[in-house]
Description:
This protein is of the alpha/beta class.
Amino acid sequence: MKVLMIGGTGLLGSQAARELISRGHSVHSIALPPLPEGALLPPEMTLTLKNSNDMTDDELRAAFAGMDGFVFAAGVYERVEGPSPIYDFFKKYNITPLERMLRLAKESGVRHAVIAGSYFSYFAKKWPEMEMTKYHPYIRSRIDQENMAFSFADENFAVSVLELPYIFGAQKGRKPVWVFLVEMLLKMKGAILYPRGGTTMVTVRQVGQAFAGALEQGVGASAYPIGWFNLTWREMIAIMNKYMGVPQKKIITIPKFLFAMSAKKIEQSQRTKGTEGGLDMAKFVDMQTSNLFIDKTEACLPLGVTDDDIDAAIGESVLLSMDVLDQKAKVIDMKGE
């Protein structure tokens, strides 16, 4: 299969490309410059360093010519704060460009598309009583992204969305998304205060396998909730502490109301600055203190994802994050890739 990928130099995209190439597929990627310094990109992947949003429809049609598959491994994440309404920002980067890409891909005869989405979409559908799309602009944008993408699907064009959770692993030269969490934990000197709850997670290698499996197996419109390791926050932070060099540091589970007070302070700060976050922090308390778990039988096993070392993957993320904080690593921001 010949595959066009948007975001092939990012953490997820490069791993997806590596997995696809190992299975005998060919990959051409369009990705934002610059290249992350020292990143090990698959040498077989051909690359155009350009902003795909700046390309004309005719340029993109030329890129799609002869392609069988399309992978969208780009977009922006929930940890964004900006002018209200922040939903417009997510629409600009997660929905509008993808809609154009899917239209052109389908017109060009591409038969399979796989999109990097969010596991928040899975929980928004699983727990409708929490009204996540009402309160969280980012989650609404991800549900809208799915619905838009699936509107293109038919018997000749399979569209799959990977509902991706916490992802661990590092790419040299690329700033990990976990720098903010590592910095926060390091600032808690005596003990780490964290609420109850937990999350599902995967390694970046497993994400690459999920991309390849969905591209090869997807039919019609398919949402794949991705999750393999289900850890409580306490379990996850214990692993992080080990790699931060403080394995004995105490972790105290704080009451929900204390976490809610912290969330309100964040919202007050945003209002003072005239900004809005992708997640309504006051409403997010209920989600953060839940077990956001996904069983691997739901999508990972059917897609051919195999077991991996989550401890080592968390360690890679933590160690590079610490190097970034200590200014020992030259990195570029992830830019949503």
